[in-house]
Amino acid sequence: MATPYSIRISSQKGGVGKTTFAVNFSVALRELGYKVILIDSDFVNPAVSTYLGLDPHDIWLVDSIHGRKSVNESVVHTANGIDVVPGKLSVNVPRLSNRDLDAWLEKLKRTDYDFIVTDTQPGIAYADVLKFYNEALIIVTPDNPSCINAIRMVNRYDKAHLKNSVVVNMARHRPYELSKDDIEDAVSTRVLGVIPEDELVPLSIYEQRAAVELKRNGRFSSAVRRIANHYAVTVGGRGRGIGIQAGDGRGGKINALMRILHLR
Amino acid sequence: MGKVPFGVIVASHKGGVGKTTISVNIAVALKLLGYNVLLLDTDFTDPNIGVHLGLEDTDAGLLALAAGKITASRAISVHAPTGLHVLSCELEGSVAIPKLVYAVRLFNILLRSRYDFIVVDTPPGSFPISIFNKFTRLGKMMALIITTPDTTASTAAIKTAMMFDNANVAHELVINMDRKRRYSISPKEIREAYGKKAIAMLPFDESIPMSIGERIPAVLLKSRSGFSRGIIALAKIVAERAKAIADKDSKTGD
């Protein structure tokens, strides 16, 4: 069985659009035919369920990690077709040992998902947890505070030998903004995509639906979809076992590519 | 003013709602009103105040002072255009969260300082409020909870309010980046969830990203903008609140 490709959505600074990107990126991957699970590992301020209007009842990541629920039992199946493990909104930040978290992530690695997308809280990541991921995407906004913090995050990922790229969010192309080249020079890692600011995003949060689904051809949706396409081509093409599972009638890398071309 | 500084804690569970922007601008506004102000960056994971004010990165700041390695006068830098005193966090310290005992020591040092106001920028999420215990016991502190008019930030703000309630800290709500869209959460809805009216409503303002790019606080760069006028009004409310508490203290002979 293929191993899932695990992507960490992160940023040192808050409010740059981690959750927005994680949700829409997951849905965009799903639209390409992949089986996707989205983990809300923001223990401080989990928001995925608010974004998607989920009603998780008693399904929470923390319970799953503590072994009170199996991985399968911890999953909410959404109308978008992605699976979500929601975070629990509580005043106290839950205490988790790295060992519990490691064990849980290892279990997840043995599932049949094509992509594991993990939304995180702003700030520090401990090196131990990082080995679970194949790649980290750092979300930045084109301003100094956000990019200076991204430099530190890139350093930390490089030290942990974790492949990393940057996604620029909320670009408005103002004279006082940092350009894509500025950012690439400063953070010395690849800028995978630039997502423009779009009124669609606050609207989609209000409507509690994924923006890529709400308006398929919007500026925001197209930019997110381009990044998802990038993963379908490069990750799939490298033979990481990513692709549609045989037997679902839509299988194969070539078909995945066709769908991408059709989308473009 | 009384002998003890008045603490203004700027907090929110959600990131990116404008904590640092508001901390910097309210500190500058209080300074412009003629008070002695210290701006304190306790965002250990992501210290940003230096970036907003155009100050050099420090290698001897809050963490070194808290650990007792340097004196306060060495750790504090001065923002030349306004004379505002700033205690930033070292970048190197971004991984090591200081021990609670250091933080308590730091606040004991600051409690004896000659400032009228200490404005504290905090990291997103909860933090050990017990470090402010002495301020709290003196009643010389208030928290400003920052939110934006959307569901995620507002739920986070209610969480922050609960955290301050548990610690017995007086708090007020500030709505930031208001764009008056039909999908914005209305002030009425926020009031019903939070339990009282927001103390200030600051508009979304183009001068903010510009001021961050220029590394000049918005209240200095565009002093007549909607945001700046809102911040100055908020600074006046905070100053009045501090004065009322100081007056009450002197009456009771405390």
Describe the overall structure.
- The complex is a heterodimer of chains A (264) and B (254).
- In chain A, strands 3-4-2-5-1-6-7-8 form an 8-stranded mixed beta sheet, with helices on both faces.
- Chain A is an alpha/beta fold.
- The two termini of chain A are 30 Å apart.
- Chain A is 40% helix and 17% strand.
- Chain A has one domain (5-263): Rossmann fold (3-Layer(aba) Sandwich), CATH 3.40.50.300.
- Chain B has 254 residues and is α/β, with parallel strands linked by helices.
- Chain B has a single domain (6-251), classed as 3-Layer(aba) Sandwich (Rossmann fold), CATH 3.40.50.
- Chain B has helices spanning 19-32, 49-53, 62-66, 72-75, 100-111, 133-138, 151-166, 187-194, 207-214, 218-221, 226-251; strands at 6-11, 37-41, 77-79, 84-87, 117-121, 141-147, 171-178, 200-203.
- Chain B has an 8-stranded mixed beta sheet with strand order 3-4-2-5-1-6-7-8, with helices on both faces.
- The mean pLDDT of chain B is 89.
- At the A-B interface, helix 6 and helix 8 of A face helix 7 and helix 9 of B.
Question: How is this fold's topology laid out?
Answer:
The complex is a heterodimer of chains A (264) and B (254).
Chain A lengths: L4 E6 L7 H14 L4 E6 L6 H5 L8 H5 L10 E2 L5 E3 L12 H12 L5 E6 L6 H4 L4 E6 L3 H16 L3 E9 L8 H8 L2 E7 L3 H8 L3 H4 L4 H19 L15 H11 L1
Parallel strand pairs in A: 1-5, 1-6, 2-4, 2-5, 6-7, 7-8
Antiparallel strand pairs in A: 3-4
Helix pairs in contact in A: 1-10, 10-11
Chain B lengths: L5 E6 L7 H14 L4 E5 L7 H5 L8 H5 L5 H4 L1 E3 L4 E4 L12 H12 L5 E5 L11 H6 L2 E7 L3 H16 L4 E8 L8 H8 L5 E4 L3 H8 L3 H4 L4 H26 L3
Parallel strand pairs in B: 1-5, 1-6, 2-4, 2-5, 6-7, 7-8
Antiparallel strand pairs in B: 3-4
Helix pairs in contact in B: 1-11
